[in-house]
Specification:
This protein is α+β, with helices and mostly antiparallel strands and 337 residues long. Helices cover 54% and strands 7% of the residues. Helix 9 runs antiparallel to helix 11, helix 11 packs antiparallel against helix 13 and helix 12 runs antiparallel to helix 13.
Amino acid sequence: SRQMNLVLSYEKEGFEDIHLLDPRLAAVEQAAASKLLQYVHRTQMRELNHLKPVIHYEIKDFLQMDYATKASLDLVENARSGKKQGSLFWLLDETKTAMGMRLLRSWIHRPLIDKERIVQRQEVVQVFLDHFFERSDLTDSLKGVYDIERLASRVSFGKTNPKDLLQLATTLSSVPRIRAILEGMEQPALAYLIAQLDAIPELESLISAAIAPEAPHVITEGGIIRTGFDETLDKYRRVLREGTSWIAEIEAKERENSGISTLKIDYNKKDGYYFHVTNSQLGNVPAHFFRKATLKNSERFGTEELARIEGDMLEAREKSANLEYEIFMRIREEVSK
């Protein structure tokens, strides 16, 4: 077609990322797939690590059904209610992950007709039917697996937030257990499943060491990076933590020295930290206090000591937020490789 000719002529060179090209593809298939991937890579201007390898696909490998046939058979939804309940998918769906659910739906939409592949799938099913305890353990392990396909897409597009990375780490930490269960059954039919499992321990370790378990979704509000991961960030946090204690100590000291029992330190964005003094106590204000604001029934004062600590805290808060953002972006970049 004209569109295909445009794609094939888009680049003279092929796509270099060979992991996206199944080596079993014919030469002409590899050439076409390479050109298409090159086109996508250039137009989207980002890596394609989230894509699955291009494979050979034969329409004749699957039973072809039109929409009316699928609807009348209640394959994925009940024709009367339009809901999942009452369909074949509803009957069979015991999946524990979003990926498993999508795979089952795909199998129902496209039934195999190749006998060899049908037998291979049945052999795998039979293995799990014959191993009740292993199947139960596997079911429990899969409960800790998040939607890797969705996460991979977000990673590729640079859209991951801290919660996404924590979900990725949790999923990767489940892989060794899942692999051990499959290997423990010692069944040749499971070999291809086992071969696809890679825990990527270095990535799981990086995320677990760097991202705080209670990290928020937003990446600009702080609270993302674990204490102990970055020495400079820990220093800024220590200033913020100790600064609060210092302010409490200053408040207690000045209250005692001035004899103003109601003296307290407050904060707002306009005036920063200040001593709140009612009009009835203005005669007891120490000489080193300087006026910051005058209100109807009170006045606000500052001291050089309080201003210095406030400056240190504001600087630490700003630098802490900026550094935390930079660290997260570096980790996100590392994850996307």
